[in-house]
Recover the amino acids of this structure.
């Protein structure tokens, strides 16, 4: 490969890199929206779980009518996420059923299309999903 | 008399051989990996800081690790051959011409052993597998280190004496089926120019130069794959087309002990033996850090130390796993083996030829390589096979976010495994079993070389150690995986 061709290859690569630097990608969050996530059973464990999300506005009022999807994923690359569409069970309260497929650290992504037309995605860490715990019933 | 052995030579094949014989073949292979490295750095720095959704963590910790061990198993050191760090370094050397020689005191593997151990330690401490940002900085750091070292010193000292990935590849490639080696030793015997190591001017073109081996491996005296990056500079420099990429008996270099160009004798290199030990015990430690019992151990250690910091806890685990355990197990096994060897040879002239303990352990430590590689192969292939297709939705997401294009529709986050889950355990056990058997074979051949009349007293202690490591590997692979990035409870 001639030297001037090599130099052109490097120059094109540099231009491409600089172009890409202007394009960051990431989650779109709405700081004025409150997201309160809880999981049953608590503490979370491997297997079926019920995820409850309460959406509130800046005044603490429930946000009704959102279309919500909940994604559970692990902190390690290479795993399949678990996805569930949440249904609104009461104003601003949304529930979904999903299954934790492995023990370890998970994170939940709450993606919602709000009634006011805005969209959001919020990450909530869920450390230490444990193995199934068999509770001894109280006498 | 000519000694031309009948071997399958990749460089003699049509198309593939012609491509590899092209002096720019390495550059052609390095360019795509440089592009991928660029994507890794870009997405790691600017993409979503979620490991399953970022090209940095997916491509490095799932695909790179899996492909590198499979390439080493099936072919050879292909990733050093296509190393993107060296491509950038070669560009630098168009403008910077180092004259310094790497310091004699550092012309060994001790710096590389330290860096390899440090890399494994930082992998756990910084949860590199869960951090696109740290992964990107690791790649950038690699580029920086390669440029700094090879910008200051002649040859390829970064590859030979420092690069942790390179050391992993060098040790593993002792088991590879392909080796860069001389085709006809008689041709080399008549060669006076030694172009394979000195290089030579180009015969045509603008007056450039064909490099010789930058890792100081003189082809006629080169034996095996240790320290060979498969760069093929020697093949391109040889004016007689007398260097090939040909088949050999995998692992055979571990039990032979000739004087090797650029290396010396394996039996006289305690640093190489230590590298093998860290490689092998590091495999077990790296797998251990992903299963449930390690968190109980960490919690116990933290409580005993009265700390909630991960650093001292991990430091203790790594000191035990990479220093204390190998020293005790190898030293103890070597002592027993040596004692039995001397007892078997007592009253015989052989008893006076038994080497000192340190040399004995050095010589026999190379039997660990197949077992260690088996553990790395089982571990990395697990993640590769279970997460193979995850690059598809991440790439789709990348293209959508950056270019606003739908690449093959919406991201297919349901894609992951390449093989059915039921295949995984048999594959892991198979890789571990192959490693164990390979190690037993090497240990027996080494024992047979020591004393062909009674190899068993030498062999049995090493066989017990290798079986212990094999059992540990089986136990590890049977533990529930529990990937945690957060840490100590109390």
């Amino acid at each position: 490969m001639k030297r001037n061709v090599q130099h052109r290859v490097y120059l094109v690569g540099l231009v491409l890199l600089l172009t890409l630097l202007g394009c960051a990608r990431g989650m779109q969050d709405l700081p004025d929206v409150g997201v309160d996530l809880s999981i049953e059973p608590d503490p979370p464990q491997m297997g079926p779980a019920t995820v409850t999300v309460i959406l509130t506005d800046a005044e603490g009022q429930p946000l009704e009518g959102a279309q919500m999807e909940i994604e559970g994923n692990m902190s390690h690359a290479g795993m399949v996420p678990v996805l569930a569409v949440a249904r609104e069970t009461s104003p601003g309260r949304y529930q979904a059923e999903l299954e934790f497929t492995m023990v370890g650290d998970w994170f939940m992504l709450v993606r919602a299309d709000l009634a006011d037309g805005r969209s959001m995605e919020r990450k909530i860490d869920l450390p230490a999903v444990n193995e199934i715990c068999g509770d001894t019933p109280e006498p | 008399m000519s000694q031309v052995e009948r071997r399958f030579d990749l460089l003699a094949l049509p198309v593939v051989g012609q491509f590899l014989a092209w002096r720019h073949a390495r550059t052609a292979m390095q360019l795509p990996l440089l592009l991928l490295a660029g994507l890794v750095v870009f997405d790691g720095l600017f993409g979503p800081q979620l490991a399953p959704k970022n090209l940095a963590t997916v491509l490095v910790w799932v695909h790179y690790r899996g492909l590198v061990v499979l390439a080493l198993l099936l072919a050879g050191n292909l990733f050093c051959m296509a190393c993107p760090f060296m491509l950038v370094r070669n560009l630098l050397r168009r403008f910077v011409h180092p004259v310094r020689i790497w310091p004699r005191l550092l012309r060994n593997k001790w710096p590389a052993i330290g860096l390899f151990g440090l890399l494994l330690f930082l992998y756990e401490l910084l949860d590199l597998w869960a951090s696109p940002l740290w992964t990107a900085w690791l790649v950038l750091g690699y580029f920086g280190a390669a440029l700094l070292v090879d910008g200051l010193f002649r040859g390829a000292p970064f590859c030979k004496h420092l690069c942790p990935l390179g050391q992993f590849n060098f040790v593993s490639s002792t088991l590879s089926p392909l080796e860069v080696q001389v085709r006809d030793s008689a041709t080399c015997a008549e060669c006076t120019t030694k172009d394979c190591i000195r290089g030579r001017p180009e015969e045509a073109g603008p007056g450039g130069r064909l490099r010789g081996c930058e890792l100081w491996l003189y082809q006629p005296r080169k034996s095996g794959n240790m320290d060979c990056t498969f760069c093929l500079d020697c093949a391109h420099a040889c004016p007689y087309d007398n260097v090939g990429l040909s088949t050999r008996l995998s692992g055979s270099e571990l039990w032979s002990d000739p004087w090797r160009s650029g290396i010396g004798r394996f039996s006289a290199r305690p640093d190489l033996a230590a590298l093998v030990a860290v490689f092998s015990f590091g495999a077990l430690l790296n797998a251990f850090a992903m299963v449930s019992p390690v968190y109980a151990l960490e919690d116990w250690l933290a409580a005993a130390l009265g700390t909630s910091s991960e650093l001292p806890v991990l430091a203790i685990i790594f000191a035990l796993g990479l220093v204390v355990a190998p020293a005790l197990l190898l030293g103890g096994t070597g002592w027993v083996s040596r004692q039995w060897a001397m007892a078997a040879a007592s009253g015989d002239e052989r008893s006076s030829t038994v080497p000192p303990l340190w040399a004995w352990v050095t010589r026999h430590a190379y039997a660990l390589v197949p077992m260690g590689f088996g553990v790395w192969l089982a571990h990395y292939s697990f993640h590769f096979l279970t997460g193979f297709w995850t690059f598809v939705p991440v790439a789709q997401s990348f293209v959508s976010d950056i270019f606003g294009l739908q690449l093959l529709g919406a991201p297919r986050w349901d894609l992951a495994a390449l093989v059915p889950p039921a295949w995984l355990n048999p594959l892991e056990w198979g890789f571990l079993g192959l490693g164990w058997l390979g190690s037993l074979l090497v240990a027996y051949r080494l024992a047979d070389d020591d004393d062909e009349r009674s190899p068993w007293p030498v062999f049995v202690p090493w066989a017990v150690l290798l079986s212990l490591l094999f059992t540990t590997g089986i136990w590890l692979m049977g533990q529930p995986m529990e990937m945690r990035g957060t840490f100590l409870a109390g």
Summary: Chain B touches chain A through 47 residues (CB under 8 Å).
